[in-house]
Amino acid sequence: MKLLIITALLIIIALATLATANNIPKSTPVSTSKIAIVGAGPGGLGMAHELSKLGYTAITILEKSSRVGGKSLTLYRDLETGEPCTQSKDSRTGIVDTQNCVAHELGTCFLHNGYHVVRDLVEELQLSPEVAPEGRAMYSSFAEDEFHSQEMGDFITSSILAEIEKGNIEVPWYIPDTFKVFAALANAVGVYNKKHAILFGEVKYTMPDQPSASALAELDMTFGEFLESNGLHVLRAFLTVAHAAQGYGYVSSIPAFYGLWWITPELLNGYIQMSLHQQIEKVVHTSTDNWFMKQLIKKVVGCMVGGGADDVYRTTTMLPEGYNKIWETIVTHNNLNVQFGADITSIDRHLSDPAAPVTISFSDGSSTDYDFLIYTAPHAHASKIVTDLTSSETEIFTSLNSYVLSTTIYSSDPISHYSDPDTGSPIMYNADKMSTAKNDGEWYADRNDMRVFSGRTITKRQTRIGLQFYENPCASDESLCDTDRIVVNAEDGFGGSSEKVLEKFKAELDSMKVSNVEIGMQYAWPYFWHFELDSINAGLPWKLMETQGEGKTWWLGASASFESVNDVLNYNLQVLDNAGLVGEGGGGFFGKWRWWCSAVK
């Protein structure tokens, strides 16, 4: 009997050692599998939607809060009163009133021209079409003073002319002054796009394949250093805003890998298309938003800079019904089973037995068995409930770090040279406050969603969204040290404001002479889980992709890919593709340049 007991113990130890060594078989759920999805954010609901379309029916979404959407959080405010409201749909026309009850985005907010998967969802779910915010108020050292702004085009022009004057940019002598800026910009974008293709090759979805050793060596620096080392000074000011404005880190410190992931050739191609549209419209004094001009400009820009893109009139758009409407509609459209207030205490995947279920236990003492686990909550905190993380999973998840992006809904009088009637811009950026960690907590961006969606400039009190970013959040406010915080109820934020963050925000408003300020609610999101340079060089982002399916688990969400909704949804598709469950698709633009461009080369 003792011999049998010892033998059994040795077998258990051997199996545990085998699991620890990551010799764990991969599995793919079948349509009858009982699937548990942890987290009702874009990653979880996006995957639930895709699986539902594939015929999967036994899906349960376990959500700790009382809401769906995760870091997609939309509040609705009456245009006139600023009070909470509900958007209504006309029963006869089916049109949703998005102009009088305005969506205010406190998390996910924009789409750019590469957001194909998101646009497909909007069309599939029959939501209101996107709109383009027209105009940006750019505060920077290039403006007249700290209280005056420039349009985005003037800001970029000023930054490029400054680099030309310094001798960092050479423009052929024969190019007229009026075209020097556009020529320098287009040339730099062409160089960037070629370099991107060399380093990453063709990107089917949005996450690049693991670069070669030589490519990783070229990426072993910050994004700012990458731009400088490749002579792309002309793009520095623009990409500083394009990257940092979304909460994805300062170009002076974020690894080049993430900068190149986010700033795709397709995005830059779209920006050049938009710039060319605007330049032509200034000359002809009429809109170029028609099929012929869009096709012509697309062909011309494709040949100029590469980075193929669809025809683009405006690169950045927003959703009138709010991003949160996507996730709410996915739930109702698929009749998904979302269990709110799910307080999970442990997840045991029984790694030693591939045929055993995944057992999830809850704080009320109950437990439920599932066939497959899809985990979309922050991976850095998975060890709190997943009892059998492998050594590989532990290495990956403990290497993740996050920032903080704070969004505050507030009201005030119109702001001079931004939201006042004379300027009427829907969005403000302060480029000088997006440079380095010394800018942590500064009010670097603001958005007037009422202007975006109503098309009107409110001349009295305005409700707007102010943004602050923290590269080193814990050093600024102890309340930000806990990166496992969630918003339980949409209107309640994180249960209150982070005192020092709010004090900093108020001081920033005061320094810009913003009057009659009234704070609504602040949302200091733990944001943009990412790897540092050493972890990227060690291949951890791709190591995670290789583990997908091991231990009856898919690890998804922003922790697995990139913070943007577009990347989260594309990562889902990539995992499904790798599992043999989808055969085509992807949000990246792939394929060769069109025949017309090839013919004229």
Write the layout of secondary structure elements.
Blueprint: H1 2-20, E1 35-38, H2 42-53, E2 59-63, E3 74-78, E4 101-105, E5 111-112, H3 116-124, E6 136-139, H4 152-166, H5 177-200, H6 213-218, H7 223-229, H8 236-244, H9 256-262, H10 265-284, H11 291-305, E7 316-317, H12 324-333, E8 337-340, E9 344-348, E10 358-362, E11 367-370, E12 372-375, H13 391-397, E13 400-412, E14 427-430, E15 443-447, H14 449-454, E16 462-470, H15 473-476, H16 499-511, E17 518-531, H17 533-537, H18 540-547, E18 553-555, H19 565-578, H20 595-600
Parallel strand pairs: 1-2, 1-12, 2-8, 6-14, 12-18
Antiparallel strand pairs: 3-4, 5-7, 9-10, 10-11, 13-16, 13-17, 14-15, 15-16
Helix pairs in contact: 2-19, 5-10, 7-9, 10-11, 13-18
Distinctive features:
single chain; 601 residues; alpha/beta; six-stranded mixed β-sheet; 20 helices; 36% helix; disordered C terminus
Rg calculated over all Cα atoms: 25 Å
- The side-by-side strand order for the widest beta sheet comes to 6-14-15-16-13-17
| End-to-end C-alpha gap | 82 Å
Number of strands: 18
> From the structure provided, what is the oligomeric state, counting identical versus distinct chains?
single chain
Shape: globular
- Please work out how many helical segments DSSP would assign: 20
Q: Unreliable segments (pLDDT under 50, ≥5 consecutive)?
A: 4-21, 587-601
The biggest sheet amounts to:
6 strands, mixed
Determine the structural class based on helices, strands and strand pairing.
alpha/beta
SS strand fraction: 15-25%
Helix percent reads 25-40%
Overall average residue pLDDT:
91
